[in-house]
Design a protein that fits this description.
Pathway: Amino-acid biosynthesis; L-serine biosynthesis; L-serine from 3-phospho-D-glycerate: step 1/3. About 35% of the residues lie in helices and about 25% in strands. The model has no long low-confidence stretch (mean pLDDT about 95). Bound molecules: 1,4-dihydronicotinamide adenine dinucleotide and 2-oxoglutaric acid (AKG).
Amino acid sequence: MPAPRVLISDALSPAAVQIFKERGVEVDFQPDLGKDKDRLAAIIGQYDGLAIRSATKVTSKILERASALKVIGRAGIGVDNVDIPAATARGVIVMNTPFGNSITTAEHAIAMMFALAREIPAADASTQAGKWEKNRFMGVEITGKTLGIIGCGNIGAIVADRAQGLHMRVIAFDPFLSPERALDLGVEKVELDELLARADIITLHTPLTEKTRNILSAEALARTKKGVRIINCARGGLVDEVALRAALESGHVAGAAFDVFSTEPALENPLFGHPHVVCTPHLGAATTEAQENVALQIAEQMSDYLTKGAIQNAVNFPSITAEEAPRLKPFIALAEKLGSFAGQLTETGLKSVRVTYQGEVAGMKTKALTSAAVAGLLRPMLAEVNVVSAPSVAKERGIVVEEMTREQDGDYDSLVTVTVVTEKQERSVSGTVFADGKPRIVDIKGLKVDGEFAPSMIYVSNEDKPGFIGRFATTLGDAGVNIATFALGRDRPGGSAIALVEVDGEVPPGVLARIQTIPGVKQAKPLRF
Ligand SMILES: NC(=O)C1=CN([C@@H]2O[C@H](COP(=O)(O)OP(=O)(O)OC[C@H]3O[C@@H](n4cnc5c(N)ncnc54)[C@H](O)[C@@H]3O)[C@@H](O)[C@H]2O)C=CC1
Ligand SMILES: O=C(O)CCC(=O)C(=O)O
């Protein structure tokens, strides 16, 4: 198999190149390519992986051209420059490095706080201009001041820690911060209104979402303490920049330090030019240490996925370690095939699917297996579904997906059962993986069978009556269809029976209709795996 190929289209630390090479991945390092979307679109089709920072915009248009792409790796935290739904729909894993630059970014926020408190950038410019304006720059002391953190996740928590070291009082607004975690961090958890009213300095550390966009709106800014200073090292769009400019002009806000802007690159911005504004060009993560961390980490993660199937820090798929991947692989194939079996037999609207794991398989990454089962189930109905997109596609269509795990009970070390509930009926199909690593179907609607999945199959459910097998085989023989394997199951003599038959080549048109006329046949379906 040829080595997977990765394109690095942003200015990642060259340390990443070495890691890719060491791990058997071919790498093409074009640090400025991300800014040229036409060239990127022209060549992206050649690559299995794309490693980026924030300059490359992975839009749906780029993804349409990315026919071989399996993984996008963001050397950093925010993945807002990637169209995640479009990547997911194409089965492309999107991974980031959630911790590699957190300390550095928190340090930038603290540096911005000092820059504001002591007007360091303006004092520097004035001094170097030969002005020696000793009386112009009167700062404020940080000790004893209240810092209000909006978003107390990885970076917010580090900022809280450093601020406490500076003897600040720290309050935080974060709906997802538990009281226990707040206690651990030594921060006081408050509502947004209270934070706005009490904070001397506000620093933002949330992602940009529909809830956080303009979290510091004109109205919110009006509720802040007079003389407040505001720092944004998270994402542009969290603060209404026009309203903030007005609040700076009126003197209500004493200063603002921004690393991120509503439009980037920010070549112009409402905040620019105000004497109490400090700006940096999205430098939060820009230290040698952080860049080396994120580059090494993303190269390791992407290589592990491309060469071993291991998934770490994916934003659109559950994690799978390199050790788990080979054990999981045959079960992913099994789950997908069981789902596909059920999907091919489903003729009415799907309401829900339940995937039950019994025995050893119950201890594996069942979320990944469930995604595979749902992908298999939906694929006969929808062309554009894959293991990555299946859960969101099911959700969009109102199909309930349930997962259950059970202790081993029965003949198999591991058993996976896919139960599909449609508008008309409930149907279950179970399978296992034998020691040869091949998935096997062992139960259909409660009837035991032992069949492999083959490219071309016929499934028949019938009444268990003498003569059926002879007529069935003759019908196929007359149509020139060769039977490769034949698996039978029944509940009791003369009761319900099933046949799962592997045939060589396509089933010619008309044959199924003839099978359907054999006395006792209830259903005859072609299956493809
Ligand atoms: N300036 C730069 O170069 C960098 C910026 N960042 C950005 O910093 C931000 C924070 O990153 P992390 O701390 O790693 O993320 P995180 O996910 O660890 O923390 C985000 C926190 O925001 C909270 N949050 C979510 N919605 C909220 C809401 N409506 N109100 C209040 N809090 C809310 C979450 O509960 C979470 O605790 C991200 O937007 C990231 O992209 C990260 C690295 C570098
Ligand atoms: O790569 C960069 O410089 C930006 C980092 C960033 O914004 C992030 O990691 O979310």
